[in-house]
Amino acid sequence: MSELALLGGKKAVTMQTPDELFKWPIVTKEDEDAVLEVLRKGTMSGTDVTQKFEREFADWMGQSWALGFCNGTAAIQAAMFAVGLGEGDEMILPSLTYWASCMQIYTMRATPVFCEVDPNTLCLDPKDLERCIGPKTKAILVVHYVAHPAPMDEIMAIARKHNIKVIEDVSHAQGGLYKGRKLGTFGDVAAMSLMSGKSFAIGEGGILTTDNREIYERAVAYAHYERFTEANTVAATDLRPYAQLALGGIKGRMNQLSSAMGRVQLKYYDERCAEIRKAMNYFWDGLEGVPGLKALRVDEADGSNMAGWYCARGLYRPEELGGLSVTRFCEAVRAEGVGSCTPGCNNPLHSHPAHKTLDLYHEGEPTRIAHADRDVRTLDDALAISEGIGKTIYAIPWFKKFMPEYIDQYIEAYRKVATHYEELLVDDKPDAPQIGQWYFYKDKDDDK
Questions:
Q1: Which class is domain 29-115+122-263?
Q2: Whole-angstrom Cα distance, residue 78 to residue 151?
Q3: What is this structure's pTM?
């Protein structure tokens, strides 16, 4: 009989795992008391608690200003407005990301230009950046995808060479480091989601940070009517006559139930992330040298880290496993008791019809090119890596506690399948042309 559970063998994961191995966020009485205080006062739509959270978050980031939003999508949209994106402008970003990194750009009559990713980091590949730059390029949006830091040195050098603004989307990597420096502090502005599925989780919310006062004030003016006053607008002076209204037509403020929880979560976040990284690195250390499986992680020796290791993934090398499809590999790992092992990640955005043919505002032509000087859709033809990336990615458990005796079971599940791959080749079928989804589904909790 085969050792593989899929073929009749015993499962690798047999121990009942404790809830805390996977439970996130960690909510204590301190969180509950902070939220209840706001609830009992009835100040959910106020800003006093939120402004305290903003100050503490800015200090933690090492930035001058932070601005809370109702969600990460709104924070990113405000960042686009704040750097000056407007009609006919282009913004470059990786095609491999969540839709909220770019769909808002259409509200500004600007257009996304999709860039290739590095298959070893899943982040924007700076070698492809200059191919994407045109006369109307206003900004580059960098995504630190599934917690892996993007190569900010190279990206910033290109951006400064061409006088292009840089927005960092840190929704997957709050608190992460690149060469000793916090992600979100390299570009002109950073924005991120803080919703309950993220590693920095406060219920629902987003936040923007920057060292540029004019960018901060423009973000306030876009979506925070009650804080947009003539007196507070000292850098973006052209906006003063329009004070008291939300110029983006958005009420973007953060609910204070979320900001109250955020203040508590911030106190313990670095400590909790350190334990996550200890657990995740232990997992990958245990798979070192196993054919077909490559860790998606950084070398922490240079001062980089993977923050809270959000939406953990591994790199798949089918050529080392006789061409075994990642779909079949994941099926076998799930049979070993790892419920969260699924193939793929986000589908590449450029392949969605919304970025090809959608006429969102009834202008008579696709919205993506309605205000552009060139048909940027032709640039999508060079994104072969993004289009095939789902066949080289698989999910791994997102451990929240360092519990070696339990983690060892999961290590064994992946090792067992990889080392017995030949038995799986018999009934293997080719992967689908595209593997992934337009958004991440909630991680399954049946790993227990």
A1: alpha beta
A2: 24
A3: 0.96
